[in-house]
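@channel sequence for tomorrow's demo:
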Amino acid sequence: MLSWFRSKPSCPVDEASKRWIEHRFSWLTDQFGINRLLDAPIVIPTEEFLPLKYECTEEGIRHLMCLVASYMDVEPGCLKLGFYDDTKPHFEGMVHSGTAGLYVQSEEGKFDIWLEINSLADPASVVGTLSHEVGHVLLLGQNRISPEEEDHEPLTDLLTVYLGLGIFQANSVVHEAIWRQGHYSGWSMGRRGYLSMDMYGYAMALYTLARKDASPDWMVHLRPDVKGALKRGIRYILETKDCEYQPALQS
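structure tokens (generated this afternoon):
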């Protein structure tokens, strides 16, 4: 009787976003192989994967960059770390969308990763930015895509999910900060990245179903809105079978 009152499953993203995520997940599987998704551990914000104490110094951040690169199968020696200042005036409560990182191919086989100096306080956010910029090495630097491709930035965010580092990106989509400039101070909210929280949730649904785990332990590390989208995505795929990404349907 109670099953009669259960709501119908609904996809957490609109149709266009759904088809794009599924199509690009299939493309990533063609590029990197399904075993890369299945065998690599998902990186979570614990001391098993990250330093117990975050050191917001050049050396400490360089160590994080090398860890992220190793998780993404990129040789750390090809990366050079730099910093820049993207300071803009903020007013209390404003939404600010500045850059947090930049990628430049400096020479053949060498890449510069630049981080914005005002975005280094939160280690999880730094890992998210690093994973996106290192993702550019895999996609742009290794000539898998062209920078002229319209979706190359959101695809780079999607790659972090495919390679097991999506938790950091998803949790950093929206962030709050207290700022001070001279005699002025205030609160600001910012948005980072190219995918919405719901898009991360649906992409993670494809990821975890492909790994044949409809209730992954690592969900506890997600912010609630992303976790909710992940759960809705899992239920939608399992009950409707409406999914272009075939590995997610074979669970």
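heads up for whoever presents: The chain has one domain: 12-249.
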